[in-house]
UniProtKB/TrEMBL annotation, chain A:
Gene3D superfamilies: Alpha-helical ferredoxin, NagB/RpiA/CoA transferase-like. It holds the Pfam family Fer4_8. The keyword Metal-binding applies. The keyword Metal-binding applies. Residues 297-318 form the 4Fe-4S ferredoxin-type domain. Keywords: 4Fe-4S, Electron transport, Iron, Iron-sulfur, Metal-binding, Repeat, Transport. This is Lactate utilization protein. It comes from the Bacteria. It comes from Acetobacter lambici. InterPro entries: 4Fe4S_Fe-S-bd, 4Fe4S_Fe_S_CS, FTHF_cligase-like_sf, Helical_ferredxn, LUD_dom, LutB/LldF, LutB_C, NagB/RpiA_transferase-like.
Automatic annotation (TrEMBL), chain B:
Residues 90-190 form the LUD domain. It comes from the Bacteria. InterPro entries: FTHF_cligase-like_sf, LUD_dom, NagB/RpiA_transferase-like. This is Lactate utilization protein. Gene3D superfamilies: NagB/RpiA/CoA transferase-like (3.40.50.10420).
Amino acid sequence: MKVKPVNHAKAAEEFIEDTAHMDFHDERLWDLRQKRDEQMHILPEWQELRARASAIKEHTLANLPEYLEQFEANAKKNGIHVHWAADGAEHNRIVGEILEKHGAKSLIKSKSMVTEECCMREYLEPRGVVVTETDLGERIQQLDNQMPSHIVVPAVHKLIPDVAKIFAEHYHTDPNDSSAQSLAWQQRLAARPVILSADAGMTGGNFVVAETGSFVVCTNEGNADLSATVPGLHIATIGIERLVPRMADMGVFIRMLSRSALGSPITQYTTHFRGPQKGSEMHVVLVDNGRSHRLGMEDFWTSLKCIRCGACMNTCPVYRRSGGLSYGAVYSGPIGAIIDPTFNERKYSTLPFASTMNGSCTNVCPVKINIHEQLYKWRRVLAEHHELPFVKREVMHMAGKLMGQPTLYRAAINSTEVALSTMPRFVLYNWLNPWGKHRELPHPVKQTFHSWYKQNRLKTKKKEGESA
Amino acid sequence: MSTSRDAILTRLRDNRPDPKAHPLPPVARLGDMDNGQARFENSLQILGGQVLERQEGDTLATAIARRFPDSKIICSAVPDFDGTIRIEELGTPQQAASVDVLVVRSPFGIAEMGSIYLSEAQLKDLNSAAHLTQHIVVILSAKNLTANMHTAYMDRPEFHTANYGVLMSGPSATADIQGVLIRGAQGVRTLSVWWED
C-alpha cells in the first residue's frame, strides 16, 4: 500500500480548536522572534555575518568529501573513533554495537534531531537499553510519547498543567503543580540519579571543525555536558553537513545561533569536544541518511546549510498557528517543509503548501537559505510528480491558465473584487477554499494597482513625453 | 567496515556543486572590539551570572562563606585556595555530585558574551565537576578578557589543544516549561566570577 500523505490541514485544524494552547504557542514563538530582532539590531555587522555564514557553508558543502576526510584524520589523531552511517538503520546498528561492547544498559542523551531521524530509541529499547532524554523539553516529549514539536523548544506546544500531569504520572509529583520553577526542579531531582548511574552518554553536534577534528555542542541546560562527562563513554551522532573548515569560522556561527534561535546572545554552554576525556572513550557517528543525495538537488541543496536555529519556525504564521506536531515529521515548520520531502516525497507532499509565501522565513535565516523560494519550487516538483491532492491540482491548473494570460488575469482580478464585495459568505467560505477557514478574506480594494497605474502613471508619463 | 564511508564520499563527489563557484571567505574579525571589564560584567548579568561581591577586607574564602552560607563541601581546583576538599581527591566523575561549591580559575573570558572558558587543564581532568557541583565560583583576571567570539576563536590557543573546552555563559538555564525562564536547570544553579585583580 502506498504511504498516505500527512494531513497537515486537518491536524492544524485540531490544534486551532484549542484556543488556550494555540494562543500561547503563537505568542511565545512571536516573542522569540521579537527577541531575535532586538539582538540583531545590537549588531551593525549582522548582515555581514549572515553573508559570511552562508558563504562558509556553501563552500564547505561544495568541498564536503575533502573536509570530512580532514575531520576524520584529525579526530582519529585525537583518539576519537569515527564511524560512517549511510542511513538510520546503520546508525542504530553502530550505536547498538558500541553499547553492547561496553555492556551498557543505560544511555543518557542530550537533544539530537539526527537520532530522531533515525528512530534510535525505538531501536535500542527493545534491545534492553534504557534511553533517557536529559533535555527538559525533550524529556517531557519522551514521557508523553510524542515527537519534538520544535527543533529548539521541543515541548513549546504544552502548558504548565500538561507538564504537571505528565510528571505526576511518571515522577509521582503533584498533578496540580502550577509552578514552572518547581516542575523544573522535579526534573533535576529525577534526572540526577539516572545521570550518575548511566553507562553511556550521547550528544549531537551543532558544528564539526575539520581543521581540529573537534565538534561543538550548544545547550542551555548543561545536560549535554553532563551526558558527555559523567559516564565513561561518549557517543556523538552528527549529520555530515555540520562541517565548518576552520576553528576561526566558529565565531560567525556562535554569534548568530542563539540570537536567531531564542534571542539570547549565546547558549549558556558552548562546548568543544576534541578528544576523549581521561579514562573515557569517545565515538563520533557521521550520518548521511539522504544528505549526500540532497546535495545533488540543484534547487534544494542549500537547505543543507541549515544550523537548526528554528528562527524560520518562530516567524512562520502557519507554524505558529498549527503547531509542530501537525507536520507529522521530525522536522517541522518552513525548514521541515523543504527537507522532509527529500526523505519521503509522497508522505510529506502536503508540507510545502503549509506556507503563505510571505518570505519571512528567508529573511530571518542566519545562513540565508531561500526557504520560501524552495517551498515554491517543491510545489512545482510535487505537481510534476503528481503528488498534489485533486482540489489543489484543479485549482492550480486553473490559476496557471489564468496567470499565464494577462488579459484573462486582469478580467478575473476585477471580477474578484466584485465577488468579494457582493458574493454571499457561503460562496466564499466553503470546502473548496480552505483559506477561508479561521480567517476573513481581505477587504476588496476599490481599484486594482494595474488600473490605477493605467489611469495615473501612464497619463503622467505621456504628459512628460509631450512636454519634452 | 569502510563500505558506507566510501559510498557516502563517492556520492558526495558525484553530487556536489562546483567547488570553484564557492570559494572560502577569509577569516573575519568583526564587531565591537571592547574587551573591558564593564562590558564583560554587563554581558554576564544578561546571561544570569554574577560578580562575587568583594567587601572591605574580604578574601575569597570570606566572600564565599557570605554568599553560600549553607554550603558544606567547597571543592578547590586552584592552588591558592583551600576549600574543604581538593578536586584531585575526587576519585570518579560521579563523586563530584557531592560538591556544593567548586572554585576554579578560568584562563580567559569573552566580553561580548560574559563567557568564561574551562578545560581539563583547569578541571584537573575531572570535567564533570563543573556541571555536577551546585554552584561554581570562577576566578578570572580582567587582563585575560578577549573582546568577542571572533577574537576568542582566533587568538586563544586552547580551542586547538584542549580535549574538552566549555564556554559557560551564566548558570544552566531552561525555558522549556511554558516559556518561563529558570536559571539553574540541570547543571550549575549559579555562576559567580571573582575578579583577582
